[in-house]
Amino acid sequence: MQPCCRIMIGxxxxxxxxxxxxxxxxxxxxxxxxxxxxxxxxxxxxxxLEQEHRALDMKFKFITELKALMEKYNQSGSDLLAIxxxxxxxxxxxxxxxxAGRPRTQRKRPQRPLRQFRHPQTGEVVEARAPQVNKTIRGxxxxxxxxxxxxxxx
Length: 154
Prior knowledge:
Elements: E1 5-13, E2 16-22, H1 35-72, H2 77-95, E3 115-118, E4 125-128, H3 135-144
Antiparallel strand pairs: 1-2, 3-4
């Protein structure tokens, strides 16, 4: 049994290098290729290939320049890795910089004052530095339907 459809190569029309010919001319076998769709795919693929080519060129240029520097200063690949590893371990402390380019200093904030809060019904006292996030004080305030600031002992 021979197939009813065949592909004819060489009959190009508008970026389509082939043509599908069906002997039975059934609509289910017909293949419609739009030249705009094909050209769109080709241009996007070309752009992607150009970007990849540029990236590979940059990588190749970097590698050749790096090898030239290694030869100039008589360094091996293992020497370079050792230097990079040393720089990588010391870098986190020095990498933090301000917008002006100066190293950022770690300032220690002063501790919040320790405050006391009393439950008005039970008389229980709780000490907290951040009462707005303390679960006990928040629970008291919700159960009594008051603001947590009203529970502070002054």
